[in-house]
Amino acid sequence: MLQTLGSVLDSVNKYTTYPYYNSDFQSFLHRDYRTERGLLDITTDTRLYKRYVHEQILRYNSKISTAVLFNTTSDTRFVGGYYPDEDVMRALDRTMSRLQDANAADGTTVTFQGLDRYRATYIASARPIFDPADRRYLGYFCLIINAQELNETFRHQRQNGVRRYILDQNMKIVYDSGGERIGLTADGPLAAFAAMETDYKQQMLDGQHMALLKSVSEPTGWRVVTFVNSDLLFEDVRKRQQNLTLILMAMLLAAIGAAIWFAVSISRPINRLRHVIASNVEKRFRTLVPVTSNDEVGDLAHSFNQMQEEMKQLLSQVVAQERAKRTAEIHALQAQINPHFLYNTLNTIKWMANMQCADNIGEATASLIYMLRYASSMQGDLVTIRDELQFVEKYLSLMQLRYCDRFDVRFDIEEEALDGLSLRFLLQPFVENAIFHGFQGNEAANLLTIGARVDRQDLILTVEDNGVGMTDRQLMHIQADDLHREGFNSIGIRNVMERIKLHYDDRYGVVLSSGPMRGTRVVINLPMETNKAGR
Q1: Residue 24 vs residues 326, 395, 468: alpha-carbon distances, Å
Q2: Nearest to residue 515, comparing CAs of 480, 486, 473, 482?
Q3: 280 and 289 in contact (C-beta within 8 Å)?
Q4: Which residue stretches of 356-471 are H helix?
Q5: Residue 433 has pLDDT above 70, yes or no
Q6: Are 29 and 138 in contact (CB under 8 A)?
Q7: Is the pLDDT of residue 459 over 50?
Q8: Confidence of residue 384 (pLDDT cuts 50, 70, 90)
Q9: Which phi and psi (to 5°) does residue 81 adopt?
């Protein structure tokens, strides 16, 4: 509507420039009709003016009903068009007084009401005319449209439940789709909403939910305001929602039916297969499931038959393993007789040595008894550092008796590290190699240092000697698990390294450093764990 209204007003406004292009209209504005000659010419000029209006303006724009040319020099008005009315002219004179201002040189559009009893509303597009030579005001040219013409223009846009208004810049109602309020000043909700800056609002009017919409013409400041019943506005949306809901329900019911049929077609043969399998379990897998189809259920039956054959073989293997296990337990029970006999014999030797005052023999026998018990009590892979150090101490006491105290031992143990856990027999292989090979041929004072400390979340164990050390080649062979040095305890060290790799991840392990006549240092890095003994 706003675009249509703008097109209508722009078209009319362009015709207001017609006096500038018509020499006769220029002469009408310059002539003084108060003279005797003017009084003789006015009848001829009026007839010529009306012909120009009909042929050049009204013929090409059916919306224009009246054209008025006003000569201010002699206060003369030329009126052409359809049904000119003196009441309309008097009302127009009141409205056109503001065109005297030169700021309206580009023309203006105003609305006014006639003074007759019908009080019809008119739209006037007027332009003041100035002398091109000296810019002297000569008069104005005004084209008038009856507001009722807009009803025909917007007749196709009428809808039930929709009320449209066109308001001019002074809030006068120029167009009313109901035809009841044309010419009146907007009031109530219409005026309130037209004055707002917002273009959309919802409001209750006469007990109905109404949607209020507004568009504003930038050139004229006129407003198009529409009141729409919200129920009507969203009627198509509701119908589409209802249709969509029905379609979705039909699709859902069809999907449910298809799902039930599909589920039954699958579950029926599966249930038959389940019953057959249950009966076969009671018969200890002695009966094969009959394969009656080539579909997925047939594949399941075939796979079950294969599984049944494999389970028969596994059951036979389990029976054989259980028999072998019982035989091994009997052998293990018999083997326990020998360690107990050895413990008792060593205890007898220890008491005989004590009775004969052979204290060294008694201490050595006691240490050997402790080591045998520690080695034979295999209750879990992990032991505390405290227990591991006691085992190493017993081993060192035997070695010091053997080598007549040729080396000294120093322990550098943190109290916190004693509760840490490590694998069994982790230190003994490195201590043994330090004694047998590190101190061999070393004339200096032999010192063996054993350490244990906690570094954040790690447990660090060290075995260090000041013996003859190793060459880089020997060290490389050791770190590459190529331990073939004659007499070297390769089995024990390889065992320690492999056990650490198997039990922990790659962050932990053993690091060796050595040099000729510089001793050897072994660093064992483990995670700091507690309260898991016997795991």
Answers
A1: 136, 138, 134
A2: 473
A3: yes
A4: 359-376, 385-402, 428-433
A5: yes
A6: yes
A7: yes
A8: very high
A9: 130, -155
Distance CA 5, CA 168 (A): 11
For the chain, the first-to-last Cα distance in angstroms comes to 89
Q: How does the average pLDDT of the chain come out, rounded?
A: 78
- Give the count of beta carbons closer than 10 Å to the beta carbon of residue 330: 10
CA distance 81 to 75: 20
Q: What is the dihedral of CA 364, 370, 371, 375, to 10 degrees?
A: 160
pLDDT of residue 316 exceeding 50, the answer is yes
d(CA 204, CA 211): 9
Nearest-angstrom CA–CA distance, 5 and 217: 9
Beta-ladder partners of 139: 71, 129
pLDDT at 521 over 90: yes
Burial 412-440 (b: 16+ CB within 10 A, else e): eeeeebebbbbbbbbbbbbbbbbbebbbe
Greatest Cα-to-Cα distance within the chain, rounded to the nearest angstrom = 176
**SS3 at position 50:** helix
**Cα(6)–Cα(461) distance, integer angstroms:** 95
Dist CA 147 CA 136 (whole Å): 33
Q: Which residue has the tokens 């856990």?
A: 421
* CA separation for the pair 158, 164 (Å, rounded): 8
Q: In this structure, what DSSP letter does residue 416 have? A: G
Residue 450 DSSP class: E
CA 290, CA 273: separation in Å to the nearest integer?
9
Q: Give the per-residue pLDDT at 206.
A: 74
Q: Quote the CA–CA distance of 497 and 115 in Å, as a whole number.
A: 117
What would the two tokens of residue 303 be?
């796979």
DSSP per-residue letters across 402-415: HTTS-EEEEEEE-G
Per-residue pLDDT at 2 exceeds 50: yes
215-252 in b/e form (b: 16+ CB < 10 A) is eebeebebbbbbbbbeeebeeeeeeeeeeeeeeeeeee
> With contact defined as beta carbons under 8 Å apart, do 465 and 520 qualify?
yes
Contact between 437 and 463 (Cβ < 8 Å): no
Residue 120 structure tokens: 């019809």
Would you list the DSSP string of 137-164? EEEEEEEEEETTHHHHHTGGG--TTEEE
| Residue for token pair 């390889």 | 494
Task: pLDDT band for 241, please (50, 70, 90 cuts).
Answer: confident
- Alpha carbon distance 71, 506 (integer Å): 109
Q: How far apart are CA 121 and CA 119, in angstroms?
A: 7
Residues in the chain: 535
Using the structure block, give the residue that is written with the tokens 């880089």. 472
* 500 membership: H or E segment, kind and range: helix 490-503
249 neighbors 241 (Cβ within 8 angstroms): no
Does the pTM surpass 0.90? The reply is no
Residue 58 neighbours by CB distance under 10 Å? 21
CB burial of 477-491 (b: ≥16 within 10 Å; e: otherwise) equals bbeeeebeeeebbbe
Instruction: Say if residue 484's pLDDT is above 80.
Output: no
Q: Which residue has the higher pLDDT, 241 or 155?
A: 241
